[in-house]
Amino acid sequence: MAGLMGRANTIVKAKFSKLLDRAEDPGETLDYSYEKQLELLQNVKRGIADVVTAKKRLQMQAAQLEQSVVKLDQQARQAVGQNREDLARLALERKSGVQQQLQGLDVQIQQLEAQQEKLIQSEKQLSAKIESFRTEKEVIKAQYSAADAQVKIGEAATGIGEQMADTGLAIQRARDKTAQMQARAGAIDELTEAGTLTDFTSGGQTDLDRQLAQLSSTSQVDSELEAMKAELGKGDDQAELPAGGAESKPEGTAS
Amino acid sequence: MGDGQYRVDESLHDRLNQIDEQATAAVESGDEDELRARLEELTRTVTEAGERLEDDDLSASDLMVPPGDLSLEEARELYSGDGLIPDIPV
Q1: Residue B4 and residue A118 in contact, taking contact as beta carbons nearer than 8 Å
Q2: How far is CA B38 from the centre of its chain?
C-alpha cells in the first residue's frame, strides 16, 4: 500500500487532468478552468453560509437548554423550600439530563466553528490563487505559440487544481458534518415535541410545573393571608413606623 | 490539506515518509487513534519545519497531507478508488 500522502496527491492530479482533457485548445482550457474555479468559489461561499446557519440553530437550541437548566434549578430550590423532596429530585434529575444534552451541543458548536474557520481559510486561499491564475492565464495566452506554453499551462493549472480539490474536500466534509448535526438537532426537536426531553421554556406546562405552581400559589395565598391578618390585627403603627423613622432620622443627625 | 502549501527541506522527506508509513499501517490495522495521531504529527512536522508559500502561489505539490481529523472510513475511501476527494466541478 502506498502512503496516504502520495495517494491523495495521485487522486487530485488524476481528477484535475480529467478537467483539463475536456478542452482541446490550450487557451480554451485556461478559460474553462478559470470558469470552474469561479464556480467552486461560489460553492465555498454557499458552504460557509450553510455552516453558519447550522451553527446558529445549534446555538439557539443551546440557549434554550440553558434556560431550562436555570428554571429547573429554581424549581428544585423552590421544592426544597416547600419540603417537597420528591419534586426537587425530579427537577434535579431533569436538570442533569438537560445538562448532558447541552454538553453534547457545545462540542458540536465548537466543531462547526472549526469547520467554518477552515472554509474561510480555504476561500481565502482559493481566491488568491484564482486571482494569480487569471494573471498567469493571460500571460500564457499571449505566448501561446511559444514552445513552453503547454508546460506552463500544466504547471499553473495543477497548482490551482490542487487548491480546487483541497477546497472541494473541505466543503464536502463541512456539508457532511453539518448534515449530521442537523439530524441531531432535529432529533432534539423531536424529543422536545414528544415530551421526552421537555422544553420547559416553551410555555407548555409539565406536571412538575403544575405541582410547583400549585405549591407556590398556596404559599403565596398563605403569606398574603398572614400579611392581611397582621395589618388588620395589629393596627397602623407597625406599617408606618419604619417609614416615619427613616425620614426623621437624617434630619436629626445632620446638625 | 486545507492549511495552505508548505515547502519542506529535502532532509525532512525520510522523516515524513516514515510517519506516513506508520499512518498507513494504522489504517490497515484499523487503529483510528493511531491514524489521527500520525496525521497530526505529519501536519505539525510540515507546518513547523516547512516554509509557508503565499496563498497566490501556483506551484504544484509533490505530496498532500490528508486532513488531521480523517476518519478510518475516509482513509479507506482514499485507497478504494477515489471516493474521498470530490470531483472537481466539470
Answers
A1: no
A2: 9
Q: What pLDDT, in 10s, does the model give residues B50-78?
A: 888 888 888 878 888 888 888 888 888 88
Q: What is the pTM of this model?
A: 0.67
- Answer yes or no: do A52 and A174 share one domain: no
CB nearest to B88's CB, from A6, A155, A168: A168
CB-CB neighbors (< 8 A) of B58 in chain A: 129, 132-133, 136, 155-156, 159-160
| ipTM here | 0.79
Residue A91 domain boundaries: 2-158
Residues A130 and A231 in one domain: no
Q: Which amino acid is at A221?
A: V
Q: Are B24 and A1 contacting, i.e. CB atoms less than 8 angstroms apart?
A: yes
Q: Considering its fold, how many domains does chain A have in total?
A: 3
Are A91 and A186 in the same domain? Answer: no
Query: How does residue A144 score in pLDDT terms, banded at 50, 70 and 90?
Result: low
